[in-house]
Amino acid sequence: MFRLDGKIALVTGAARGLGSAIAVELAKAGAAGVVVNDLEQTSEADATLQHIREAGAEALFIAADVRKEEMVEAMFATIDDTFGKVDILVNNAGITRREDIFSTSLQSWHDVIDTHLTSTFLCSRAAMLRMREQRSGRIITNSSVVAWRGAIRGFVHYAAAKAGQVGLTRTLARTAAPFGITVNALAPGMIETDMFRESHGEDGIRAIAAEIPLGMGTPEDIAAAVVFLASNEAKHITGAVLDVNGGVYFR
What average pLDDT does this structure show over 180-197? Predict the structure, then answer.
């Protein structure tokens, strides 16, 4: 069950954290090739590539700023040349800043919105053009619980971007369905990653974890959900947003 044998996957923002865990789990599920995207090839990215190879998949790193159209097009052209197809796109690239509406500059607004939402548009468009020809594909976007309940103590741009990803997911699902493409999203809750630790601090993490019925989640919890949505067993699921939040929010 939940096998991805022969599939080619692209995960954006995958040098570390959630993206890294997702990329490695896709390889463990049998993907033939996993493309790791991030801004630059760091030691963390190299470690992710090594884990992918150890799982038996071909690994490729592509440095690209997925907020920029020309870089996205160049990235997909490289995937075309290397693998000849893309079966799975995971829109994972993201940043966060602890700013409320009073402290958010227009530039900061654009930085966060573009990293999450514009990148999802650009990468999904490039992937769907290819998947339409294949008559198959999976697009999975990492949104957030804040898309439903709003963010706490600021993060105004982050919450807006995450809600936008949900609307984009549902719209693309309708467009993609006639071509055999499914488009879904995840809404993670509080997941213990470097980015979360940097934005909330250790004391903040402990306080938040105490309020979550199942405690803080791990990157592997999210990666398992991605593998399911990418698998053939999820072929009749599209336009869905899967909550993976440890019981912190019900809807």
Answer: 89
Q: Is the pTM of this model over 0.85?
A: yes
C-alpha span between 141 and 184 (Å, rounded): 6
DSSP codes joined into one string, the chain: ----TT-EEEESS-SSHHHHHHHHHHHHTT-SEEEEEESS--HHHHHHHHHHHHTT-EEEEEE--TTSHHHHHHHHHHHHHHHS---EEEE---------TTT--HHHHHHHHIIIIIHHHHHHHHHHHHHHHHT-EEEEEE--THHHH--SSS-HHHHHHHHHHHHHHHHHHHHHGGGTEEEEEEEE--B--HHHHHHHHHHHHHHHHTTSTT--B-HHHHHHHHHHHHSGGGTT--S-EEEESTTS---
Which CATH number describes the domain made up of 8-244? 3.40.50.720
Q: What is the pLDDT of residue 199?
A: 67
Q: Please list, in sequence order, all residues whose beta carbon lies within 8 angstroms of the beta carbon of residue 104, skipping any fewer than 6 positions away.
A: 97, 156, 157
**How far from each other are the two terminal CA atoms of the chain, in whole angstroms?**
28
Extents of the domains making up the chain: 8-244
Task: Tell me the pLDDT tens digit for each residue of 200-242.
Answer: 777 777 877 788 999 889 999 999 999 999 999 999 999 999 9
pLDDT in tens, 45-60: 999 999 999 999 999 9
Point out the residues that are catalytic: 158
